[in-house]
């Protein structure tokens, strides 16, 4: 029995990992095959494929090539649908096949590596169609391409599950009603659509970097998926824009510090205490190359500024030598370009290291809308502690601890509380 239990657990972990990495590709390929208006059918086939893996792998063994197994099963399920619903004629006309006996070859064409990549690029842009509201665009990208749950998406938007469920439903209805096509836009429409695409990738990465999951501080799989989508855009001629390279640079700088963000027990290691020899210098160099590439245009996007801030942290030999003045200048520009309570809160930290913690307390009093945010109260506690005010520091840390669902963050806040 223990062996069976272990096999089931290992299979579940592998399927979960593959779902994060492959569900978006599979859904995109199947949607391109059946049509965007049948997105639900594509999602159902993906779910059925993953369930079949969960049921069979623990007892029949994990296949030598799990990814190939998933695509083969999904392809066969798609063929079953084609045969059962007798929709081959409509599908074949779209790609030039005339004989029904060619249906298997026709479906298989969609599952070639180049076609899978093309399908995902089409899906990425189709989900960001202007007919769909901006909030729903991002929610759909996170759900279909990122494999996030409704609850995870709600965390990324700082809202509730019901709101996200409604957004997803309205978006799918809009796709059906407006007969939105699965294609990459051209001309003047491309830059506007690309802006929404980049926002979706950014939020997907953020959910991995600062996970809302109570037991996972970092969701590496989500960050990897976001980086993969960013690379896809950077390798596609029509989307090789400065903002794409800036976002890719930002992700490289952040991922470079992953190994140093936690210790061997999984506890949080703050930036000031991180062992910088554990930072991935290859990724930092890759980030600098992407940031240099992003400077070729005349656009200064929010991703340029955030990447610049991340780079300044990465190139500082020690925490004490961090160029906080340059970081504050970047935040001043970022607040003007992307005014939000979260950006304003991060700017407060920079202010506190340039002008002192009392200046930080002065500015944090002007930040509104984060009363239920654990990071707001944690930063407030830090400012009080650094300014020699232990009682309000303790109160702020306690409030932050009550608000965070993360066990690792609770442990860190307990450490802070023990010293004030």
UniProtKB/TrEMBL annotation:
Residues 193-295 form the DUF6596 domain. Belongs to the sigma-70 factor family. ECF subfamily. Residues 18-85 form the RNA polymerase sigma-70 region domain. Keywords: DNA-binding, Sigma factor, Transcription, Transcription regulation. GO terms for biological process: DNA-templated transcription initiation. This is RNA polymerase sigma factor. It comes from Spirosoma taeanense. It holds the Pfam family DUF6596. GO terms for molecular function: DNA binding; sigma factor activity.
